[in-house]
Amino acid sequence: MKAHSDTSAGSGDASEDSEWGPDSEEECSCSNEIQTSDSEVDEDPNTVATSINLNDGGLRELVTRLIQEDPCNKKCLKGKAMELEQFLCSLSQMTSGEKKQSIIMTLVVLKKKKTDTVLRHRDHGLREQFNLFLSLIGQVCRTAWCKCYGISTATVTRYRKRINDGIFSVKAHGNLLNQKASAVDLRWLVSWFKRFAVSVGDVVSVRVRRKETKEGEIKMYYSNAEYTLLPAYFTWDQLYTKMHNYVEEIALRVREPRSSTFRQYLTKLCSTIRIRSPRSNM
């Protein structure tokens, strides 16, 4: 999908500059300013959702609604029903990730287009301004641009921050960065940890346990539970390495947790296995 069209870059419909922010109820300037300050705006509750596959009737209805509800004074979508229908039809066939990547790359290209980009000083710092384009349609105001993509100015602000940080790809889904608990073999993990704790730790009866609250108070907890205390020289990073090396050594086919969730799982599932405090060895 083309990021933008150059055919209307120098046309007389060029818009005045304004900030990324909530539009006034009385007017909507055909402006396309991206600001480099950290301010964000709230999500637009009236944003048109275009991430679903549209049938012919729904597509024409959406095109008509976008043109009729265009708040821009210059009516930048007027007379472009066919082009808008083709654009939305293509957009509706994309997955959520493809749509996000298309938006980000469009912003990257517009940001790098030197002829349409200027820097201006305003009350809240340096702002970067450039014209916005839609493929097949041409130059449009920021409100029409956001509504055609089905996003709000707050979403554009988040994407703009990623671009300024040099990140042009869509952020990976959380399940790729942190495996689900159901994907990790927790039963094996707990079993291994208990066997390892018995082999290197000491089993003690903890009658009284002291815990400091957020307010700085010391509370005493009494129980008859038996705790397994690991040597004080262990750290959670070292324990994770022990577990990983064990899996590699015997070529065990098991789904390991990531190091970032290793401690989280075991402190919750094996609450009676602790690393001994260094002070207790003195």
UniProtKB/TrEMBL annotation:
<feature type="region of interest" description="Disordered">
    <location>
        <begin position="1"/>
        <end position="47"/>
    </location>
</feature>
<feature type="compositionally biased region" description="Polar residues">
    <location>
        <begin position="29"/>
        <end position="38"/>
    </location>
</feature>
<feature type="compositionally biased region" description="Polar residues">
    <location>
        <begin position="1"/>
        <end position="10"/>
    </location>
</feature>
<feature type="compositionally biased region" description="Acidic residues">
    <location>
        <begin position="14"/>
        <end position="28"/>
    </location>
</feature>
<protein>
    <submittedName>
        <fullName>Uncharacterized protein</fullName>
    </submittedName>
</protein>
